[in-house]
């Protein structure tokens, strides 16, 4: 493609412009792009056509149909449907994350090198409760292993620990409110 | 108007030239994306919600900023003229996306211009911390302290499994994007950069030229940043990025040594020609200016060029851009007029600061 501005060099940059509410796309060579637009030392990730990636991964609309109700999954809080999410590449609200949860693992795995769970900072207000919950989860896993290996004393000890933590969680919730 | 001070062609502190590896690592940025519970995200919220979000976040920052010794100026985007927005974009204080925002949005800037908090960008809240040189940990510490202060006063959308919830699935988890800007002329000249870019992308990080894709980097400036935000802690992400950046810096140093060893006179000639262009030309396009700036910068690093102050070069990178030139000229300029204004800016800034250019400048 030839540059829209100089008509000489080949275009290497697509520039989207908003003028009087209309979005126009310009195909520019790197020289004209530099002239027209701030060098824009692109600190910001370009959207990398996220919606394009998404629609490549979900070519059919199969994924957007709720397997039980047989209808298109829609977020009741913001009205985004799963196809709309794919098309935009953006969530409409926090509830979308729960509504679209069955499909999200697959998507997150691809964007984040196989990861699906956050392991970083936790806001202080969520901190203690969430930490205890994650501990309980871990203890339950260990308990299953113990039962499987028929280490029942160990399993009983772990069960008691879970009880202590669970009561802490309930106590913390009621005294905290 | 609050914005005036931020539009001046005056260096921000992150354009300074200090710190380790500053010859190659020009600046560092940390960005945290956050959203509030109780409001839909910017892709679906109403104008009424946008206003409330803006009000809520702004009032917390204006009230509590002083707990961290910051004074913030609140700038409402819709009140800015087009050129003013562009100047803020060129200075990296706001994103192009925010400049084009269609709903109530604003930016809160710290006096030293190291912190910029964008409200109602793609997310309700974008905390951006800028530092000169290669300072990932410092930049994160500053962003994190502000984030911790904000979370005490605002209710963040956070999910037990997914972490901080963001509009874009590529930001979920930590919501953190860390970037370092690198000047890599020798890796570019020797074409090694084309080998490095794909190798890095397999490790959850990305290197790109100023224009995004490929090896076409204006002025040989590249940005390395983390791609992955979910499944690693902030600490791990910063560590990985730091290690990778250090490796690239070392490779650039080796490539520079090789070039100097192979053809010192050819190199010196080229770098001085570029200095000649910057100090004497009458018409200077952005591209030529960026190329010559890269050469002169390299010349200083290699101690071939003396008497030019590196921090002036950093400023010129920013101030040679179209909106700044027009702001400076106080009128709109056609591309050719910009080339003239740009050449004049370079002559003034570089010659004034006492380069011993022997030829008399007749202008
Ligand atoms: Zn062109
Ligand atoms: Zn939703």
Automatic annotation (TrEMBL), chain A:
SUPFAM superfamilies named among the record's database cross-references: C-terminal UvrC-binding domain of UvrB
Keywords, sorted A to Z: Kinase, Transferase
Gene3D superfamilies associated with the record: UVR domain (4.10.860.10)
Residues covered by the UVR domain: 133-168
Alphabetical list of InterPro entries matching this protein: UVR_dom, UVR_dom_sf, YacH
GO molecular-function terms, A-Z: kinase activity
Keyword Transcription regulation recorded: no
PANTHER family found in the cross-reference section: PROTEIN-ARGININE KINASE ACTIVATOR PROTEIN
Protein name from the UniProt record: Protein arginine kinase activator
Organism expressing this protein natively: Planomicrobium stackebrandtii
From TrEMBL, chain B:
Domain Phosphagen kinase C-terminal: 24-255
Reactions it catalyzes: L-arginyl-[protein] + ATP = N(omega)-phospho-L-arginyl-[protein] + ADP + H(+)
Spans traversing the lipid bilayer: none
Molecular-function annotations in GO: protein arginine kinase activity
Keywords from the UniProt entry: Allosteric enzyme, ATP-binding, Kinase, Nucleotide-binding, Transferase
Family listed: Belongs to the ATP:guanido phosphotransferase family.
Protein name: Protein-arginine kinase
